[in-house]
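Retro notes, structure queue

What went well: the backlog is down to a handful. What didn't: a couple of records were mislabeled last round, so from now on we paste the full input next to the output in the thread. Example, using Extracellular solute-binding protein from Streptomyces mirabilis:
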Amino acid sequence: MTPNTATSAPSAPSRRSFLASTAVAAAAVAGGMPLLAACGGSDSGSGGGTSAGKSAKKLLPAYVATNVVTPDIAAKNGSAVGFTSKLDIASLKTSVPKKLGKGGKVSIMSPFWGSPPKSDNAYYKAMNDLIGVDVEWQNQDGNTYDQKLGAVLASSDIPDVVVIPGWNMGGKIPSAIIGKFADLGPYLSGDAIKQYPNLAAIPTDAWQRSLFGGKLRGLPQPSPYVTGIVPLYRKDIFDKEGYQVPTSADEFMALCKEITNAKAKRWACLDMKWTAFQSFGVLSGSEKPLGWNLVDGKLVYRIETQEYLEALEWTRKLFAAGYVHPDAKLGKSAATDPGPKFAAGEFLIYAQNISQWWSRTAEQATQNPDYKIWGMDIFGHDGGSPTLWAEQPAGIFAFVSKKASESVIRDVLAVANVTAAPYGTKEYMLTNYGVEGTHYTVKNGVPTKTDQGNNEVINAYVMVASPTATIAHPDFPEVAKAQVEWQQRMGAFTKKSSFYGMQITEPSRYTNLSNDFEQLEDDIVRGRKKISDMQQAVSDWKSKGGDQLRDWYKKLLDENGPAAS
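Corresponding output:
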């Protein structure tokens, strides 16, 4: 599993912090584990399949860009849109001029991190009144959600709506999605979506990821396709010490040598494996389909490439030279919660989700005013331009029960049309911040949640559907600007693999074939195993089913064609 994105998913922030950050990082949630869908009547969850193909295009909703709000920075090269202006509550736009809900009840089961608020809280009441639907939340512990999900989907008593993150789509969940959730195509495909303008403004790529079993079943949370993992660094210390941001793998190694002084309790970095994968151009590993690509007419998997081995060897050298903080070598606190020791200057560089650019800035703003975290541009290992690979454009979905009546489905879509409202609208502020004066206050254009807001406005309506990927930090607009511009620069070097945007179900006999590689990667870079152990593992993978799996993927490409680049 790769690091999670909050404009992008987990080595990773916790899912709780990942989701809690979306209200402020404004929206873009991304991919987890392989998402599964069969396309066509003969395929099943066990047999495998894809959501792509010529027939898929007619299932997709029409795209109608929103003109309600104009972002300060437009999307470019797969980036999020950005907002850098101060927030003016008086000038917020209205994107849902009339209630689309008909007053019915809708039950929604969703993962929740923390303590759920009481069902009659002020936030839920305000949202339900705006939408015109009585939403009843069945919040479940996000840390054990897969267990609850399996039990509920195996029963006959399914809530009207079930939210399923990609990382929870293992085991029998794919077949349950296809068997138990409604086809939303009659309500959303083609021009039908235009009665829900905020949903119509969701990018087409995200809707393609919502095709399961040859039907449009999911309501998506879109995310940028640019990688969400950034080499973050202490710019304040770099500036003070005169360190230069590296532009090649050799320069990075030399910089680490310059920074590291173990006696003074300063190391250069944490585990930089993900930056190495990026720098050496290794195919994306956040989801299995993206690890495959057609190269010179042959389908190859990421672990088979020379770039993969070179990235592991370079990372191993960082560890072997003593440049990596000891906690990362042992898998301890700095590796899981880098904030405190990064703030203390025990290490100056680490690779993590782009959301931490803002969250680390915010948490240090008052206690350490000189502190400045920034993002390095990803360098090509040889000093040239990098070759980066696109992430999937959506990774969390809401599904409607197949037993739901048309009136319930319409009410669910009314909910989604509000929660997908863009930043800068009244609906967005209510969805993400709650009621002004009750859940947040605004001072100098910066909204700040009250204690009641922090307790009530979390993990709920934002899980139903989201607007196009957005970055907005009214408290630190310079960070929002830098994040979007970083995505745009990196997006210029980003390619889409042959399976970009597709929903893939691998046949069940291959599901666990690649499970041990991440642990082996970590053992190799820490010196516990050798590169030759990886070469042997790849050879074993081929003989145990990897070559047959290649043939299976090749057949999918032959039948459906590669993703559009």
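Agreed that this is the format going forward. Reviewer comment attached to the example: Confidence is low (pLDDT under 50) at residues 1-46.
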